[in-house]
Design a protein that fits this description.
The complex is a heterodimer.
Chain A lengths: L4 E3 L2 E4 L5 E6 L6 E7 L5 E8 L2 E4 L8 E4 L6 E5 L8 E8 L11 E2 L3 E5 L1
Parallel strand pairs in A: 2-11
Antiparallel strand pairs in A: 1-3, 3-8, 4-5, 4-9, 5-6, 7-8, 9-10, 9-11
Chain B lengths: L3 E3 L2 E5 L4 E7 L6 E7 L5 E8 L4 E4 L2 E6 L4 E6 L8 E9 L2 E4 L3 E6 L1
Parallel strand pairs in B: 2-11
Antiparallel strand pairs in B: 1-3, 3-8, 4-5, 4-9, 6-7, 7-8, 9-10, 9-11
Classes of the chains: A mainly beta, B mainly beta.
C-alpha cells in the first residue's frame, strides 16, 4: 500500500512567485493535515481536512496560503505570493480516524522543502 | 496555548541507552506520540501511549509518562548507529498534533 506522497520534494522560488504543493494521502484516509517546520524549530500545524471540508484551519499563517482538497482525495497548498519567511519544510499527513478517543495515528509524507529567495 | 518542549541534542555511544525527554502543557491530551525523522525522510511513528498509561514497552523502546509532571520520555535500549535521527514528541489536541522542536540523537561508534 502506498504511503503519503508529496510533490515536489524540493522547490526553489523567488519572493513574490507562486508555488503549489501537492499531497496524496493514503487511500481511504478521510483526514488530511498540513504541517510546516521552519529552520530547525518545532513542526507547526497548518490545517486539517476531513474529506473535502476544512475541519480546522487555525494554523494557517495568513491569506497568502490557500489549501484545497477537492473531491476529498489529494490536497494542494498554494502560497501566493511567497515571502522569505515561508521557507521551510511542508509536511502532509493522513489518518483514518480522528474522532475523540481514536489513536489518530498520522502517517507523514517525506515533505516538500520550500526555499524562497 | 499548548506547548511541547524537548532538549535539542543528545549524544551517546553505541550500545548505551538513550533517554529523550519531553514536557507538555495540555493535561487533557488523550494520546502522546514519538516520531523519528531520518535525513531526507518523512516522520515515522515510533510509538504512542494513551494518557491513562504510565509505561509502554515495545522491543528496544520504553515510553514513560508522568501525568502529574506532564513529562514524557523515550528510552532506547542498546542504541545503534541506525538510531541516529531527530526524535519528535507530540501531543494530541483534538485532531491536530502539537510537536516539540525535536531532539537530534547522535550515536557514536
Amino acid at each position: 500500500e502506498a504511503g503519503v506522497t508529496q510533490f515536489p520534494s524540493h522547490s526553489v522560488i523567488e519572493k513574490g512567485q507562486t508555488v503549489t504543493l501537492r499531497c496524496d494521502p493514503i487511500s481511504g484516509h478521510d483526514n488530511l493535515y498540513w504541517y510546516r517546520r521552519v529552520m530547525g524549530k518545532e513542526i507547526k500545524f497548518l490545517l486539517h481536512f476531513v474529506k473535502e471540508s476544512k475541519q480546522d484551519e487555525s494554523g494557517m499563517p495568513n491569506n497568502r496560503f490557500l489549501a484545497e482538497r477537492t473531491g476529498g482525495t489529494y490536497s494542494t497548498l498554494k502560497v501566493q505570493p511567497a515571502e522569505l519567511e515561508d521557507s521551510g519544510v511542508y509536511f502532509c499527513a493522513s489518518s483514518q480516524d480522528a474522532t475523540a478517543l481514536a489513536k489518530n495515528i498520522q502517517y507523514f509524507g517525506a515533505g516538500t522543502r520550500l526555499s524562497v529567495l | 496555548g499548548e506547548d511541547v518542549e524537548q532538549s535539542l541534542f543528545l549524544s551517546v555511544r553505541e550500545g548505551d541507552s538513550s533517554v529523550i525527554n519531553c514536557t507538555y502543557t495540555d493535561s487533557s491530551s488523550t494520546y502522546l506520540y514519538w516520531y523519528k525523522q531520518e535525513p531526507g525522510a518523512g516522520l515515522q511513528l515510533l510509538t504512542y501511549i494513551f494518557s491513562n498509561m504510565d509505561m509502554k514497552q515495545d522491543q528496544r523502546l520504553t515510553v514513560l509518562l508522568n501525568k502529574k509532571d506532564k513529562h514524557l520520555s523515550l528510552r532506547i535500549a542498546d542504541t545503534q548507529t541506525g538510531d541516529s535521527a531527530i526524535y519528535f514528541c507530540a501531543e494530541r489536541d483534538t485532531g491536530k498534533l502539537i510537536f516539540g522542536q525535536g531532539t537530534t540523537l547522535q550515536v557514536k561508534p
